[in-house]
Design brief:
It is built from 6 helices and 11 strands. It is an alpha/beta fold and 244 residues long.
């Protein structure tokens, strides 16, 4: 569902450091490098305060690194001005938030259509893509409902539909199951896995929940702002540990 890609890594994080201004000047990330390929279903893992959310925010151009570079398909994007960064996010990135971030006065359909309106997609194509995204997450029958009439799990599914309808290069999700019970969270992960496997949607999500991590095909572990074992090629690949 994403746009056409060019050869090479989808994302490169090059020697990134992030320091938030304070008296202590503690680095949330320190000299971290990593690469991510199109088609991955990858978790960034680590305890609270490890730097995983900071890394996701930098990759999502929500924040800027103090040092180092973020590249998408070889293009340096970490130096974009705020307007250009916002346009890049709109046209190339999808986001799933803990708190769903749906617009309460809009229906599920209208919430999914909203980023497409911002992209300038025509009304007929916009409606077709929104309905298709809702169908993929199993909520086509709920297209006319507002968020208040949806369960937490359904709202998060609408958020997934909104993220994929724009056909992004990658969907970024910060603790997407944090506000869901274990059963609903597992259903959401199953949905994301299906979208990854069947539709080629690339997912990068953060989590500190050990029950979530086995769902990932690859886990990048961060602790105190650094990769836990960079000697293994910037990440631990779990595919070798899977059976079947």
């Amino acid at each position: 569902m994403s746009e056409r890609l060019i050869p090479g890594p989808l994302i490169e994080v090059r020697d990134v450091t992030k320091i938030y201004p304070s008296e202590a000047q503690v680095a949330a990330l320190s000299g971290l490098s990593a690469t991510f390929q199109a088609g991955e279903f990858t978790a960034i893992a680590g305890p609270s305060g490890s730097g995983k959310s900071t890394l996701l925010n930098l990759i999502g151009l929500i924040d800027e690194p103090t040092e180092g570079e973020i590249l998408y398909q070889g293009r340096k994007v970490s130096c974009l001005d705020p307007a250009a960064a916002a346009d890049f996010r709109l046209r190339h990135l999808g986001f799933i938030f803990q708190a769903y971030n749906l617009i309460p006065v809009l229906t599920a359909m209208e919430n999914v259509e909203y980023p497409l309106i911002l992209q300038g997609v025509g009304s007929e194509e916009r409606r077709r893509r929104a309905l298709e995204a809702l169908r993929l997450v199993g909520l086509e029958a709920f297209a006319g409902r507002r968020p208040a009439l949806l369960s937490g799990g359904q709202q998060q599914r609408v958020a997934v539909a909104r993220a994929i309808a724009a056909r992004p290069l990658i969907v970024l999700a910060d603790e997407p199951t944090a506000n869901l019970d274990s059963k609903t969270g597992a259903q959401l992960l199953d949905l994301m896995q299906s979208l990854n496997h069947d539709n080629g949607v690339t997912f990068l999500f953060s989590s500190h929940d050990p029950a979530v991590l086995p769902c990932a095909r690859r886990v990048v572990r961060v602790h105190d702002g650094r990769l836990v074992d960079p000697a293994e090629g910037v990440a631990q690949d779990l595919d070798a540990d899977r059976v079947g």
